[in-house]
Amino acid sequence: MTGCVRSPVRNSRRRTTFCFCLSVGLLFLSVPLYGIDRGRSLNELQHTSWTYKEGAPGEIYALAQTRNGYLWLGTSTGLFRFDGIRFQPYKPESGQAFPQRSVFSLFAVPDGGLWVGYRYGGVSFLKDGKVTDYGKAEGLPSSAVLAFARDRHGAIWMAAGEGGLAQLQGSRWRKIGTDSGFEGPANTVFVDHAGTVWVGTPTSVDYLVEGGNRFRTAAQGLLRVKNLAETSDGTLWMAETGYGVRRVPLPWKDRGRPGPAVLVGSQAITFDNEGSLWITSLGNGIRRVPYPKRLHQPKPGPSAWRFHDSDVEAFTQPNGLTSDFIYCVLQDREGNVWFGTSGGLDRFRQSPVVSVPLQPISYRGALPIPAAHSFTTSALAAGNQGALWAAGIGPQVLLRIQKDRIVTQLRDRYVDCAYRDPNGVVWLATSADVHAATLHMPWSLFRLADERSDTIGSKQGAVTYKYDGAVPAGRGLTLRRLDLPAAAARVDQSSPSSTP
């Protein structure tokens, strides 16, 4: 989203079990991101949340992004505009007042306009600071406006719940009735890539092909279809609040049989640019399915409703979500994914910095690592075969990390700096105390190498080292402390200008 969000990320993850968190900066800091890599887990994405503390409204029912880049929020307390920094209750430049306060649906159109639907009936169209209102006099029902859609000819469709389905014709709304093959409530309306108009009802999914004049039923016997979304290959999915999220069982594709599903009560879904499926829920946080084609059909029985599918990720309020009650989801033009909840606004985006949770190694008979909730890195150096050596405090350990897990763990090794030389040897330096560290005077120097293949000492003219200790570091590596001359480790504190 243009001009979007530069505010700090909220550190809202609380862990009851100990883990290390290592933040790794990648090299493409200036590369723009237009989608979220589905190879990244939810925990590897940057999550930012805004609540009333940051000025965000609560009860965000709808989200939309207009051509100028603003994010619009439809809430129980009115229409808000967000520029990435401030939430502003919107007041039209024309000075007009909106007919209602509670905004239930939003829909941005290509010409920069914004359709606004109200909870107690009625519609407004906002463009260039001017507002055009539609109500009963223009043919609208008094029921809540739940969704909008725009077909390939530019016609605007509206789903108004118990008020049914309507289409804007000129300056009036025409209710779609039995003469067009449709009757009853309409929970949502959606137009696919082929121009087909799809309508979700409490019990069915109906459709009207482009150029057609009568709706037909694609699936029936359903449980409250609240939202529809399409994959890049044209597969249509639905949020069926009374059952779960799944493909619409089309008779000409699936023979009407139910397929894979995520069993969570949802009223809003979307597919991002990379093909991941994002799912809202009414009390269970969000779900993300990076590869929807890998989903399996749930097994029958009560256990099917338990969340245990390895292909489905979850993110809930204990993870930092503003609320587990989520009303809407939107992907913006930069590929960020936004959620409107009962407690505020949440955003997920791909970041060049990834937090990697690491579980410490427990050795039998060894003292446990002191309890802590983070690992503050003081030094990093590359190891062999893609490994990484990391040293720091909280606790004071030296770690060898490979494939996102700790493979070597050495206690009580405080390291100020680390360096890998051209021969693959890792050098580590420590300080005796704060004063020595401030003066950058090493108290100890360690050499970490695989001595079975280390030939540096055998080369003609090579430096010969003496050691006063050795510690196995795993995978054939040995950590040796160098026996330094006394002058190299002594700091003469009698005169500030003295040198060792």
Salient structural properties:
single chain; 500 residues; mainly beta; five-stranded antiparallel sheet; four-stranded antiparallel sheet; 39 strands; 39% strand; disordered N terminus; disordered C terminus
- Percent of residues in helical segments? under 10%
Largest sheet: 5 strands, antiparallel
Instruction: Write the CATH architecture name of the largest domain.
Output: 7 Propeller
- The whole-number mean of residue pLDDT values reads 82
Give the domain tally.
2
> pLDDT under 50 segments (min length 5)?
1-32, 433-442, 454-458, 487-500
Notes on the structure:
The protein has two helices and 39 strands. It has 500 residues and is mainly β. It folds into two domains: 33-354, YVTN repeat-like/Quinoprotein amine dehydrogenase (Methylamine Dehydrogenase, Chain H), CATH 2.130.10; 372-489, no CATH class. The model is unreliable at 1-32, 433-442, 454-458 and 487-500 (pLDDT under 50).
Short description:
By secondary structure, the protein is an all-beta fold. The chain has two helices and 39 strands.
Write the layout of secondary structure elements.
Blueprint: E1 20-25, E2 46-50, E3 60-65, E4 71-75, E5 78-82, E6 87-89, E7 103-108, E8 114-118, E9 123-127, E10 130-134, E11 147-150, E12 156-159, E13 165-169, E14 172-176, E15 188-191, E16 197-200, E17 204-208, E18 216-220, E19 225-230, E20 236-240, E21 244-247, E22 261-262, E23 269-271, E24 277-279, E25 286-289, E26 313-315, E27 326-331, E28 337-341, E29 345-349, E30 353-358, E31 376-382, E32 388-393, E33 397-402, E34 405-411, E35 417-420, E36 426-430, H1 434-438, E37 444-450, E38 467-474, E39 477-482, H2 486-489
Antiparallel strand pairs: 1-30, 2-29, 3-4, 4-5, 5-6, 7-8, 8-9, 9-10, 11-12, 12-13, 13-14, 15-16, 16-17, 17-18, 19-20, 20-21, 21-22, 23-24, 24-25, 25-26, 27-28, 28-29, 31-32, 32-33, 33-34, 35-36, 36-37, 37-39, 38-39
